[in-house]
Hints:
- InterPro entries: MTAP (IPR010044), Nucleoside_phosphorylase_d (IPR000845), Nucleoside_phosphorylase_sf (IPR035994).
- It holds the Pfam family PNP_UDP_1.
- The chain is an alpha/beta fold.
- Helices cover 27% and strands 20% of the residues.
- Strands 1, 2, 3, 4, 5, 6, 7, 8, 9, 10 and 11 form an eleven-stranded mixed beta sheet that branches.
- The longest helix has 25 residues, at 242-266.
Amino acid sequence: MIKPHPASPQARDELVLGVVGGSGLYAMDKLEDVERVSLETPFGEPSGAYTVGKLPRQSGPPLRAVFLPRHGVGHILLPGEIDYRANIHGFKQLGVTHLLSASAVGSLQAEIAPGHVVVPDQLIDRTKNRTSSFFGSGCVAHIQFGDPFDAGFRELVTKAAAEVVGRGEQRLHRKGTMVVMEGPAFSTRAESELYRSWGGDVIGMTALPEAKLAREAEIAYAVLATSTDYDCWHQSEEEVSVDAVIAIMQANVARVRSIVLELAERLPTTCEHLPWPRALVGALITDPAKIPAVTRERLDLIIGHYLDAH
């Protein structure tokens, strides 16, 4: 019997939850049968070793889960230094089908106070000098990115957040536009006001190119954002300081961990009931016969199942 390609629907039927931790979230609660896995990828070195294990659930059998702190152990990587391609490729190597990004963000709107939870539905890209695609070197593909987050997965994240936030005083914002800036410095006042005029709700530094790469890798992706401060537009507030951000961030981390556990309870066991995106259907432009052998090998986990079918 021919073994299915590891990126094919037949090989990716089990739902595997990935969590990439942002500022403050450096570990994952309740994991059992834990293993630390260091990987090599064709795109470089991930931020660190992945934590792989199982989340026990009252709603069904344990859920396989994979965790990675995107800034590395000890928070040693700037947002612009993270090898996003290596991180996403590593998640796919480990079978992840649905990836939750936990992100600390600044608020661009008065109604999103520090401590509030936001599940964004849109992105504005203000990053620079970051490689945002697996493709190139003789292979061209153009994915659809009009809705940058997976709708079904985002809905379950929102419901899990509502269950947890409803137990406390913190508000949940069920949608919003997230501006992603390069950093590491925070915005100028003029930039902050510009983003507000564009309709930005929160601002962060890491959801891009992460979201684009997850889509290319056909991994369902959603962001769980927690507000740590008002960006510098808010004249009645002091300018954001690292100490103030860390204080709010530490309070947010416990909430995020609870939301992840609630999400795990709500996720189905298989991808039949919550499919990952088939984003590369019709996206590959290059004639497969023209793709260089070295590029074909490098991209095997991304497009190999489509090339096999071709």
